[in-house]
Design a protein that fits this description.
Blueprint: H1 6-9, H2 11-21, E1 24-26, H3 27-32, E2 37-45, E3 56-65, E4 68-82, E5 89-103, H4 107-114, E6 127-128, E7 134-136, H5 137-148
Parallel strand pairs: 5-6
Antiparallel strand pairs: 1-7, 2-3, 3-4, 4-5
Length: 164
């Protein structure tokens, strides 16, 4: 079987392979799949930023809707942070729920094309994807982890509850 046809015979194995190799899912192939929902358990990602102790572990579900994708699930990692008080490195466990939406045409793009003004609702704040490109799952997880970090991280010895 040709590599380019592998996604058709076992879509979930192909998706896992894409995530393992590059952290990205090619959208042209994904959009041609007959399925609309894929469970991707036990994924491991190695990120350089933020620094982690070991790989980031994620149990993910990718769901396709007309004109959009939804990435949901749970991720866990041990972040390596620098204490802002004593400047020592320390580890902090991090558990996050993932719920990220992606569209192939945003309301802003629709407005630019149609010339009509479109009211944007809070549900419209999703990332726009080029259907000829790829969904960079590793980058999505990196962004979520970075947003979860306290802007002034403190180690246990310097945490406010230990201050005298």
């Amino acid at each position: 079987m040709r590599q380019t046809d592998a996604y058709r015979s076992d879509p979930e194995a192909w998706l896992v392979d894409c995530l393992t190799q590059t952290g990205r899912i090619p959208l042209p192939e994904l959009l041609r799949l007959p399925h609309e929902r894929w469970h991707l358990p036990g994924q491991m990602f190695t990120l350089t930023e933020p620094e982690t102790e070991g790989p980031v572990q994620a149990d993910l579900t990718l769901q396709r809707h007309p004109g959009s994708l939804m990435l949901s699930g749970h991720l866990s990692a041990t972040l390596v942070l620098t204490c802002t008080k004593c400047l020592s490195l320390f580890e902090q466990p991090c558990e996050l729920d993932v719920s990220e939406g992606f569209v192939f045409e945003s309301p802003a793009a629709h407005q630019a094309i149609s010339g009509r003004e479109v009211e944007i609702a809070s549900d419209d704040f999703v990332e726009e994807l080029d259907p000829r490109g790829a969904l960079d799952v590793a980058d999505v997880l990196r962004q979520l982890l970075e947003l979860s970090i306290d802007p002034s991280p403190r180690c246990d010895a310097c945490a406010p509850e230990h201050a005298e």
